[in-house]
Structures are given as structure tokens and as C-alpha cells.
Design a protein that fits this description.
Length: about 300
């Protein structure tokens, strides 16, 4: 007969077992808010102690980005997964490897061909005028976007290879991991289990992913990017493929802006005949590559 005193400390049922999905969603929101507040305060205190309180400091901004990304997105996602089945990397499908070379190649090429499409969506977004009743909301969104742009400008002001690598780690790799664990690995999974419809989960999760950034001009582009990342998770069954795609998208944007700044080139806004042709070709290539990615993982499953 086994001695009950030797039972493991984690014996018993997972915290979320038997709880309704709405209850789980409330807990996820509370976790995210609690971690965000704690880590934001911690980051501000450490940042002020190291870099001071006067002026804008690239080092302080980088520290805050790291602390806020980990605290707001990664920690709540891992805790939520643990509450599901006492495993931090199962619920979010991060315990599965990519294991599909054609799919990886397609995603790498897609990260390049999707850039003109994203530019088109940003331009279309700027043409949309919200009603006067939403003027206050629009102004808040604009202010938050201006603040985000100013932080990014300070971080990328120094044009050296070392700073470029540091920015790729902090502004590309870290957000890709933290945000994908939260939005695709956790929120999309929760919506999927709730409504039993993967398409609703992908599109709704993608919209929340875009809206929570509070950046008006990129709302549509980021929404469809979130949808693209969501379907990568559905097709591949592993969180690491959307993490790879997210990282490549961020990294290419940072690298291209770095090259333009070093060369002193100002990108032209709007569209001309050349950019229109490039965008049309980009849409065709993206559609073909998405289909190939889908078929590649369907063949692997079969």
C-alpha cells in the first residue's frame, strides 16, 4: 500500500479543469493585467535607477520593452497553460517541432513577398475615415501610435551593426516569442475550444491581436498578419512556425529601415505604377505560397 505522504506536490486536478471557458477567459485577462502592472512598475523603477529620469534613453526603452513583453504576454500565457494541464508547453502547442522543410521555406519566402501587401493595407487603412462620434477614440489611437513611433525612432537612431543585432533580438525575436505564446498559443486556443470553430478563433484572435496594439494605421495590416499567423498554427500544429513567421516579418522591417537610414534614403509614400505592379505580384505570390504551405502540412498529416 502506497504511503500518501509520498504523493507529489502537484497531485490533484488542474486549476481550470471543469471551469467554463468564460471563466478561463476572465482569469487570462486578470493574469495579463496583473503581470502587466507588476512588470511595468518593476521596469520603470529599474530603468530610472539605471538610466535616470531625464530625457529619452534608448537603453531604458529597450529595458521596458523586454520587461513588458515578458510580463504582459509570456508569463500569463505559461501560467494559463500550466493551469490547464500542469504543463507549460502543451496547451499552446510549443512542445511540437516544425518538422516540415518545405513549410519552413515557404514561410521564409512569404516573409519577403508579404511586405508589399502589408504596405498596401496600411495605405488603405489611412484612407478610412471614422465617424465624428469616434473622434476621441481615433485621437487616442493616434497618440499611442505616435508614442510607439517615437520610442522606435529613439531605439533605432544609432546605426551600428551591434545595435542592429540588439534591436533584432529585442524588437523582433522577443515580441515574436512572447506575443505568439499569448495570442496564438493561448487566446486563439481558448477561443477555438470555446466555439469549436477554428476559423472564428483565427479571425477573432487576429483582430484582438491587432486592436490591442492601439495603432490606427496598422490595424488592418496587423489583423491580416494575425490571421496568417493563426492559420500557420492550425495547419502545422506547432507554435514555432508562427513564431518564425512573426520574427521574420519584424526582423525584415527593422533591417530594411536600417539599410534605408544608413544610405539616407527616404521611402516614398503612396503608390505609383512600379509599386502597384510589385503589390499585384506580391498578392499572387503570397496566395500561391499560402496554398503550398497548407498542402505541405496536409500531406504531412495524411
Amino acid at each position: 500500500m502506497k504511503d500518501k505522504r509520498l504523493a507529489p506536490l502537484n497531485a490533484g486536478h488542474p486549476f481550470f479543469e471543469g471551469k467554463k471557458h468564460i471563466t478561463q477567459l476572465v482569469f487570462l485577462c486578470l493574469m495579463a493585467m496583473a503581470f502587466a502592472i507588476v512588470f511595468s512598475c518593476f521596469g520603470a523603477l529599474v530603468g530610472n535607477a539605471i538610466f535616470g529620469t531625464e530625457g529619452e534613453s534608448a537603453g531604458k526603452y529597450r529595458l521596458l520593452l523586454v520587461v513588458n513583453s515578458v510580463g504582459t504576454f509570456l508569463f500569463p500565457a505559461l501560467l494559463f497553460a500550466y493551469c490547464q494541464d500542469r504543463k507549460c508547453f502543451h496547451y499552446n502547442h510549443s512542445d511540437h517541432i516544425i518538422g516540415n522543410f518545405p513549410g519552413i521555406v515557404a514561410v521564409i519566402v512569404l516573409s519577403i513577398t508579404i511586405l508589399p501587401v502589408a504596405g498596401l493595407l496600411v495605405e488603405l487603412n489611412r484612407m478610412v475615415e471614422l465617424p465624428e462620434s469616434m473622434a476621441k477614440f481615433t485621437e487616442i489611437m493616434r497618440q499611442m501610435q505616435d508614442s510607439s513611433d517615437r520610442v522606435l525612432a529613439v531605439i533605432t537612431a544609432e546605426h551600428t551593426p551591434g545595435i542592429l543585432i540588439l534591436n533584432l533580438l529585442i524588437c523582433a525575436a522577443l515580441p515574436a516569442i512572447c506575443e505568439e505564446f499569448f495570442f496564438r498559443g493561448t487566446l486563439q486556443q481558448l477561443i477555438h475550444h470555446w466555439c469549436r470553430n477554428k476559423h472564428v478563433a483565427v479571425w477573432l484572435g487576429g483582430f484582438i491581436f491587432s486592436a490591442i496594439h492601439f495603432q490606427m494605421d496598422g490595424l488592418l495590416a496587423r489583423w491580416l498578419l494575425g490571421v496568417y499567423l493563426g492559420y500557420l498554427l492550425v495547419w502545422s500544429g506547432t507554435l514555432w512556425l508562427p513564431i518564425l513567421a512573426h520574427f521574420l516579418h519584424n526582423a525584415l522591417s527593422i533591417f530594411i529601415q536600417y539599410i534605408l537610414d544608413v544610405l539616407g534614403i527616404q521611402p516614398n509614400a503612396g503608390f505609383n505604377s512600379l509599386t502597384t505592379i510589385a503589390t499585384i505580384l506580391s498578392i499572387v505570390f503570397c496566395a500561391a505560397l499560402l496554398f503550398l504551405t497548407y498542402k505541405s502540412y496536409q500531406n504531412q498529416k495524411n
